[in-house]
Design a protein that fits this description.
By secondary structure, the chain is of the alpha+beta class. The protein has two domains: 4-84, Glutaredoxin, CATH 3.40.30; 92-191, Glutathione S-transferase Yfyf (Class Pi), Chain A, domain 2 (Up-down Bundle). It has helices spanning 14-23, 41-46, 69-79, 92-114, 132-145, 156-170, 178-188, 191-211, and strands at 4-8, 28-32, 54-59, 62-67. It has a four-stranded mixed β-sheet, with helices on one face. It is globular.
Length: 212
Amino acid sequence: MADYTFFTNPMSRGQIARWALHEVGADYEQVIVDYGAPKPAALLAANGMGKLPTLVHHSADGDYPLAETSAICAYLAETEGGGALAPTAQERAAYYRWMFFAAGPMEQAITARSAGFEPNERQQVSFGFGSYDRMVETLAAHCRAHDFVCGSRFTMADVYVGSHVMWGTMFKTLPALPEFLAYGERLMARPAYSQAKAIDEALIAAMQEKQS
C-alpha cells in the first residue's frame, strides 16, 4: 500500500494537493472521484463532506485523514521530505500569515466578488477580508517585495498561496499585475509543478475525450 491515498478530481483544488505531494516526493495512490457520481464510501469515511481533495496518510500507527487543501499542504511540509519545505523559525510568521491569508481573506474576497457582493464601508469592518481591493493591494505589496512567501526561499506556503495567485490571474478573479505574473512564472519553473500539472492535464484531456 502507498503511504497516502489521494482522493481528487483534476478539475478541483486537488491540483494544489498533487503539486504538494510531488514537491515532497510522497508515495501516493490516487482515487479519481467523478463529479455527479456517488462519492466512494472510503472518501466519505475519511471526510464526511466528501470534499476534494482529501488525503489519507497510512502510517505505522494508524490512518490519518486530512481535508482542507491548506492543511494538506502544511501537513506534508512537516511530515515528508525531511521538513525541507516547512518554515524555519525565522520564516514561521510569514509562512503561517500568508497561508491563512490565502485560505481566509483572499478566498473570501474573491468568492464574494464572484457572487456579486461588495461590502460597503460599514460592512468591511465585520468581514474578514475588508474589501477586494484592499486584499489585492496587500498581497501585491508582499509579492513586489519578496520572490517567495517567506522571502528568498521557496516553501510549501508558495504551493498554496501561489496556486491561488496563478489561478486568479488565469481565470481573471485577480488582476494580472506584473508582480503576480512574475511570481507565477517563478513557481511554474519548478519541476514538481510541471510533473503534477502534466498528470492533471492528461486526466482532464481523457475526461473530455470520454465525454465527447
